Every structure is written in C-alpha cells, then in structure tokens.
Hints:
single chain; 158 residues; mainly beta; ten-stranded antiparallel β-sheet; 43% strand
Amino acid sequence: xxxxxxxxxxxxxxxxxxxxxxxxxxxxxxxxxxxxxxxxxxxxxxxxxxxxxxxxxxxxxxxxxxxxxxxxxxxxxxxxxxxxxxxxxxxxxxxxxxxxxxxxxxxxxxxxxxxxxxxxxxxxxxxxxxxxxxxxxxxxxxxxxxxxxxxxxxxxxx
Length: 158
C-alpha cells in the first residue's frame, strides 16, 4: 500500500510545484540575501522612493489549514526585487534575467509604515514595510492558498 501523502505533496504532484510564478514570486521581494547577510543592511527608508528587497522566510498555507515553512527559492520568490513607490511597481533585478514586473494599485505611507497592495492573475498581494528598520512582511493569496513572506528592504541607491 503506498504511503499517504500530505496536502503539500499532493499539491506539488497535481501542479508540479508549490506555486507558479505567483505575484508573490514576482513581488515577493527577495529579501533573502539582505537577511542572509544580516538585517544590518536594512536601513531607514523615510523619503526613499526606490528600494531593493529580499525575502528571508516564507510559509505557505493551504485551505485545509495545513501550513508549511519553505525557503523563498522553493516558492519561486526572486532573490531580489526592486520596489518603486512613485511608479507603483515591483520588478526583478536585471541581473536575475527573469524580467518580471507587477504593478501596485495602492501605495500609502502612514505612521512610519509603507503599505503596498495589488491584484494580478487572480492573486491579491499586500506588503507592509517599516520605514525605520526596513523590515518587510508580505502576504499573497489566491483561492485555497496563501503565502506569507518576511524579509528586509534597503535604499536602492546604495
């Protein structure tokens, strides 16, 4: 008798991967390298319109309530993304060769936080970035699946 598969294994078997280049992957912010080198590189983002971000930790949750920790690269999250709050865009870096970009429908700054939100390919995404520390929290969701990402951002003009 074959071993019983958990929901994540079934999802991977059905779809071939945990997620498909979701907006999360596009957007998701790639704060891994910044976190890998330490959050010391995150800096004050007050007045900054363009920042580079990297994902450090990620978690995927399925509609049945099961959640799994994953590395950003397991979820096709780019190593780095560039967020431009004036243009309302998030894009992969030229060096990645991925040429991915998404638009935000909403950008707000209040109480030391930057809020970015959008919808693309039946997925909703939301970013909260602390202007003082550069720490970032991202949520991406679609029917039956959500991904949470934690990372860091710094001024793109370093």
